[in-house]
Each structure stands twice: as C-alpha cells, then as structure tokens.
Amino acid sequence: MNVAATLFYFLQQFVYVLINVIQLAMFVRAILSWFDPMQEWKISAFLFMVTEPVILPIRRLCEKMHWFEGVPIDIPFLLSWLVLMVIQLLVTSL
Fold first, then answer.
1. Both ends of the chain: CA-CA distance in Å?
2. What is the pLDDT of residue 1?
3. I need a surface site. Which of 26, 48, 56, 81 has the fewest CB within 10 A?
4. Is 16 helix (H, G, I), strand (E, B) or coil?
C-alpha cells in the first residue's frame, strides 16, 4: 500500500469511529433525557455539549422552515441520527 492509501484508510476509520462515538452519545443523551429532562447532571450537560453541534444545524433548518411544529418527538434529533448514518455508509463505501 502506498502512503496516500494508508492515510485515506486511517482517515476513513477515524470518521467511522467518530460517528459511532457521536451516535452513542446521542443515544445515551436520549435515554438520560427521560431521567434528567433539565440536564442538571454533569454527564447530561456534557452529552448536550458534545451532540448539540451535530443536531443544531438541522434543528435551525426545521425551525426556519416551520417543519414539525407541535410534534412531541424531537424530529431534528432523529434526522441528525439518520444523516450520521448516511455519512457513515458513504465513508465506508469509498
């Protein structure tokens, strides 16, 4: 393998693992939201800090377009999860 292929492989694996970590943090954040809805626990605040930059662009787009208003489920959260899954599939298929 040449150097470029090796670097690409490590970058691909890094992105794959990073997305897995973010998805795990999102999952734990969702579960903790049932027990700590005001995010008073330090772990909840940390998970919010880690995952919200991923969710915020989609949340702002949905608010700007007035999509999903009044829906009791956090749709931007789910859409962010799906976007991460698509990115992960694209990265692994290269």
1. 16
2. 63
3. 56
4. helix
